[in-house]
Amino acid sequence: MTIGAPILEIEVLIIGLFLLMTEAFFEQIDKRTLAFTAISGLLAILAASFFVAPAPANVATAGFWSFYAADPLAIFFKRFALVTTVLVLVMMIDYAPIVRESIHGTTHQSGLGEFFALPIFTCVGLMWMASAIDFVMIFVSLELVTMSFYVLVSFTRRNPATLEAGVKYLILSALSTGFLVYGITWIFGVTGETNLSRVTAALSQPAIEAGPALFGMVLVLVALGFKIGAVPFQMWVPDVYQGAPTPVTAFLSVGSKAAGFVVLLRVLQPFFILPQMERLLTLIALLTLIYGNLAALPQSNLKRLLAYSSIAHAGYLLIGVVSFAGAAVSFYLVAYLLMTLLSFAVLIAVAKETGENIEDFNGLAKRSPFLAFAMLIAMTSLAGVPFTAGFLGKFFIFDAAIRHHQITLVVAGVITVACGFYYYLKVVRAMYWEAPASESAVPLSRLSQVTMAAMIAGIIFLGVYPQPILDALKH
Amino acid sequence: MILPFIVFCPIAAALAILLGAPARRTALWAAGVTLAATAFALYGFETGRPGFQFVSSLPISSDWRINFTLGLDGLSLMMVLLTAVVTFAAIWFTGVIADREHAFYACLLFIAGGALGAFASIDLFFLYAFHELALIPTFFLIGIWGTGNRQAAAWKITIYLATGSFILLLGLIMLYRSVPEAARSFDFRNLQQSASMILPQAQGHIFLVLLIGFGILVSLFPFHTWAPEAYASAPAPAAMLHAGVLKKFGLYGLLRLALPLLPQGAQQWSTLLIVLLLGNILYVGLVTIAQKRLDWMLGYSSVMHMGYIFLGIASGTLLGTSGAAILIFAHGISIALLFGIAGEIRQRTGTLLLTDLGGFGKVMPRAALAFGLAAFASIGLPGFANFSGEVMVLFGTFRNGANLNHFTIFQVATVLALWGVVISAVYMLRAYRSVFMGALRESWASVIDLRPSLRLPIGLLVALSLWFGFFPQSFVRIVSPVFQSYFIQK
């Protein structure tokens, strides 16, 4: 039994609409049911994604399949989006009490319905983006993602920091959208095409004017650089990450970033014919690596630390992009998904009790050994210790860089890895060395506990046996 | 199947302890069983047969040709034996741990498991990965249970070793990439066959990267500053394991990988290596003399003695290389014993300042005897394994390009390195005098001697050192077939 790839997105969309309708017409139900419905629905679709029929061959010149791809990369990132959304929804259930505090409403659960429904729409956007091979499609799906994030980022709107984050995200995101459209226009103007493979064909013709095409591509790069948080378009990241509700931050740092990289991998392909592009990207990767890691060093707020760390990881991922290592980038993103979401999940649990600063984690190992262990695994994986997925991710990336003789990036990478050890182990030190402020255990719901255990298992499993991910990316 | 058992026995025990098994008993049993299994492997090992024995393999990634392959040849067998012995002694030496005893023993066992895995791996990926397994436990051991300026020491060792490891990783990837696509592999045996395809220039690059990476891990001058501080702050069992075993990984890596796979690279950089190792022997040696605390002195002395092993690696002769292997083993045993006794003294007095101590020979005769034997071994007194190792290293180096009319750098280095023996005699004997001889303070008159049960691990360590001191050929016979193949290839 096989199904067409677009069915997946349509099903997710139906789930989202269903949630909104239920929210609107059945006010009395426990809103958490909505989240559980969404989680089970998304898991069913995740299972269904293993029965997707390959896209019809040789029809990619016109019609639907000229802007929608169903190749392994697309299916892979659809699953990626689904897993991310499910994990974020689990975190949102834990986070719900904090949302309630900051929403006016007649019932005690007002506003929670949208909080659980909006990520579904983001997920649809992410899934579409994974398949987008036409600039128009890329633009539309990117906007769908961004629109739902506008609302989610400023969801707990009575908190001034959240409001500030929302405004910053709105303005800068809108600006980057402007860059994207403008860039697409230039590229269309030069090549007369919006389909990526036809753009490639047009660009390889000798009569083409490379200058304007390059200018258009640089504009697109500005927009994508904003999405992935690459230097010099990273200014929004720390403030927005710190201000947004924590599950949304997690979603933003994984979902939005992964989407940016998928698009980058697809969009850059035609433009790597132009040598200037590679030099430019190397420079961006270098700056991102150095800035992200150095700025993370003095942070004392864990959420902000993770924001800078996400910039740093964008740097490692960009090394992979510059070295044309699609598989390495994809593997790294999977590792990044697991370890980032795990650290945010622990952060949500602990922040409810104490706070978001690193010193609030003091002595966590004595209070809640499981949470401390989960954080230890997440941090060692982020730092890149062997037998974790994060290490293999770095291993593949550095291998690609050495293969392409990117000596500058490799040297910078080694230095920044050492920085990473310092700031990630700062968290470990707080948890294991310092004395706790109180002895009571941090409460943790059964669902979160199971999810965290699954993520820990995933990190270690992929750190030892990466082959399943590599196989899933093959044609 | 004996090899996976040896590697995973400590790791399984560590997990069991974390899950609530009685800490000390489980750890001791695991270390004892590992030692027994290693002795069994030694017994079953066919000396002189080329290649690896007890090979077992499990495919991990077909794309990258990574397999989890374990196997032993003479060199790795002796490293595994060293690890098993020192682990057993270190766990036996562990005293009462007041805070989180379970985690302490689990960390020790993780370090041991990582070292065993690294030495028993034929696949370079796992050789690297197992070594890094020890990184986080070391951070914990020093940071939580350390003494003195433990936090700074823990940061320093962790960041130094993480950086060194990543440089090493780059070197390994370069090595992997330096052969044509079809021959590419992380398996050492395949690499050995295709090593001749590596261009001389590439050999030079890769050797330099490996030398820096491994050099940081072994505290090669000038990358040595992490070691004394970390060993001074670490709890005694951690210092025993780290200085005795884990640090030897870098030397093992150079012997295992760099010499056979990159012979021309080794030649290109031998002058640099000799200059740096003389820094270890002479400069660090003088710094050791100036130390005022016993733990710092031992830490620096362990850095200094690495110089002789590096000299053996740089010697370019079969004699010198085999001497380096013996010296790795011998130094691992003597430094473990020294750190163990120093830890016992610190537990009783709370200080290791040499001017505060004195006269402990009267109250701790057993400790004085054991420390004396280990100190003699460490200086290189004939009869101990260190002596046979050092003699072979020095003779081997001197012989390289020997010409009566003209001294090359090898002969000059031998002459200078011989001075190091005097230096180590000075600081070791001074330390012995100021700790065990002289007047005893009244407040320490009631200090009790070592637990009688410690006679077993001490006896084991001393017996091994004496055995290989008097019968070095029993060691050489096992390791030299490995090196012979290196020098035939040349």
Protein described:
The complex is a heterodimer of chains A (475) and B (490). Chain A is built from 19 helices and no strands. By secondary structure, chain A is mainly α. The longest helix of chain A has 32 residues, at 160-191. With 490 residues, chain B is mostly helical. Chain B has a domain at 275-484. Helix content of chain B is 73%, strand content 3%. Chain B has helices spanning 2-18, 23-44, 74-93, 101-120, 124-132, 135-145, 150-177, 188-194, 200-217, 226-233, 236-246, 248-261, 263-268, 270-289, 294-314, 318-349, 360-363, 365-379, 385-399, 409-436, 455-470, 472-489, and strands spanning 53-61, 66-72. Chain B has a two-stranded antiparallel ribbon. The longest helix of chain B is centred in the last third of the chain and has 32 residues, at 318-349. Chain B is globular, with a radius of gyration of 21 Å. Chain B starts with a helix and ends with a helix. The mean pLDDT of chain B is 89.
Keywords:
heterodimer, A: 475 residues, mainly alpha, 2 domains, B: 490 residues, two-stranded antiparallel ribbon, 73% helix, globular
Number of domains of chain A: 2
Percent of residues of chain B in beta strands? under 5%
How far the N terminus sits from the C terminus of chain A, by CA atoms, comes to 20 Å
- Pairing-aware structural class of the strands and helices of chain B? mainly alpha
Can you give the helix content of chain B as a percent range? over 70%
Unreliable segments of 5+ consecutive residues of chain B: none
